[in-house]
Amino acid sequence: MNIRSLTRGDGAVIGAAVLLLIASFLPFYSVGSESRNLWHSDWFPTLPSVTLAALVAAGAVLMARAPQFNGKQVLGLSFEQWAVSLSIFVGWSAVWATLFHNPEGVDKGSGNWLTLLFGLAIAVAAPLSSRLPALKAPLMGAPSPAAQQQPYAVGGAAPYGAAPQQAGYGYPGGAQSVDPAFGQQPYGAQAAAPQPTPAAAPAPASDFTAFWFAVPVPRPLFAEDNSGAQIAELTPGTWYLAVDQRGAALIAQTQDGRRGVLQDSSGIQRG
After folding, report:
1. Cα(89)–Cα(235) distance, rounded to whole angstroms?
2. E-assigned strands of 77-168?
3. Per-residue pLDDT reduced to its tens digit, 248-262
4. Phi and psi torsions of 20, nearest 5°
5. Where does the sequence pass through the membrane (predicted)?
6. Are 99 and 59 in contact (CB under 8 A)?
7. How does pLDDT run across 3-22, given as a tens digit for each residue?
8. What are phi and psi of 104, to 5 degrees?
9. How far apart (Å, rounded) are the C-alpha atoms in residues 176 and 228?
10. φ/ψ of residue 24, rounded to 5
């Protein structure tokens, strides 16, 4: 799956589950000079109802963001609904095990209080991750232009031709906003003979951010001097870097460093 499809709320749920796993190895309680963690048999009911349930909730979050499980349900609930339900169950179990279950002669250890803290954290983060704008924001931003020499290190998403295609423009698995100027020229319209006096190129967009993309079908890349000469052909299954925008077209850079104008940007997959 593409890690860029995860939100901050997803990251909070997964992080809390990992911290609960770590806390399970710390001293949960002590009797006299002997301390034990959640993996001892005499405290076993708390382990599956808190630690293991939290790990299952984190797994449900990952499956909810994976394109191959999009829309699928288990026992009538989506993976996102399972993640929320399990996280709330984890929070309640952590409260009961740490605050209401107090055997005589038992002293609570650091793992006990950390289990309570992270159990409450996952119970709050899961239901709010799809409601609060701060938690709905992407966990990771778009790749920076500095990554030009690492075209495949953009979150692991497979471009067109290397995996099942994803509908829409943007990161795989999620719709993104589209510049209304993109894709308005049909493929082939730029094959006409160049004008005798080509117009000056529009000024680059000052707020443009470089991004990786893949094309759904082979498309020509033309020279930047408006001569109409084709310098390369972009093919599916390969990532290319969009370094600028020129009107309705993109200035793209191939993996061997050549730059040109992609006049047909309709249906591209953003990495």
Report:
1. 49
2. 77-78, 107-108
3. 788 998 887 788 999
4. -65, -40
5. 12-31, 43-62, 82-101, 113-130
6. no
7. 667 788 888 999 999 999 99
8. -70, 135
9. 31
10. -65, -20
